[in-house]
Design brief:
heterodimer; A: mainly beta; Immunoglobulin-like; 11 strands; 59% strand; B: 111 residues; 7-stranded mixed sheet; 4-stranded antiparallel sheet; globular
């Protein structure tokens, strides 16, 4: 079936370290978003990136649509980066605008 | 700029009681509106979406219903809550397959 898979499921980092989170998806997409869910549950938009590369401060993302994966890079991690990172896609031909979420990557950044 | 509001922020309800959660969007017109639920664990699941007033599509058969009485208002309801309705409910707005933005969420506990 149509799937969104994220890896790794859990990540523990020391402050200052770099990391890469991966999202694989099983079919062509119209939309791909990366979110950070903070401890209060709020979903913060990080990137809208159905293809290409974007950067925002210490975060950057790359989506290779033809190979059906996206990567989120966190550089010089800080304790405020802790939380769950979600990848979500809208598959072509699916319900209009329906975001399908991966299971998330739980990131813990230690001082 | 656009903002999205949800209330209440938290709710504790007995089994069998009714439910009404409200979501409103400011700063945009004719948005697509969505209700998602995040159960225990990480995954988010789309419950309902609406492309206009009075137009509701359900993604998952369940004990809940949705209504859109005004352009920027989306309501999630139940006549009789079940224990399994507990979770974190998130409202979102977007345009077509494009970027979606989420509200702060309502944490519902059914006892």
């Amino acid at each position: 079936g149509i799937q969104v898979e994220q890896s790794p499921p859990d990540l523990i980092l020391q402050e200052g370290a770099n990391s890469t989170l991966r999202c694989n998806f099983s079919d062509s997409v119209n939309n791909l978003q990366w979110f950070h869910q903070n401890p209060w549950g709020q979903l913060i938009n990080l990137f809208y990136i159905p293809s290409g590369t974007k950067q925002n401060g210490r975060l950057s993302a790359t989506t290779v649509a033809t190979e059906r994966y996206s990567l989120l890079y966190i550089s010089s991690s800080q304790t405020t980066d802790s939380g769950v990172y979600f990848c979500a896609v809208v598959f072509r031909g699916g319900s209009w605008g329906k975001l399908q979420f991966g299971a998330g990557t739980q990131v813990v950044v230690t001082p | 700029s656009q903002t999205i509001h949800q209330w209440p922020a938290t709710l504790v309800q007995p089994v069998g009681s009714p439910l009404s959660l409200e979501c409103t969007v400011e700063g945009t017109s004719n948005p697509n509106l969505y209700w998602y639920r995040q159960a225990a664990g990480r995954g988010l699941q789309l419950l309902f979406y609406s492309v206009g007033i009075g137009q509701i599509s359900s993604e998952v058969p369940q004990n809940l219903s949705a209504s859109r009485p005004q352009d920027r208002q989306f309501i999630l309801s139940s006549k009789k809550l079940l224990l399994s309705d507990s979770g974190f409910y998130l409202c979102a707005w977007g345009r077509g397959p494009n970027e979606q933005f989420f509200g702060p969420g309502t944490r519902l506990t059914v006892l």
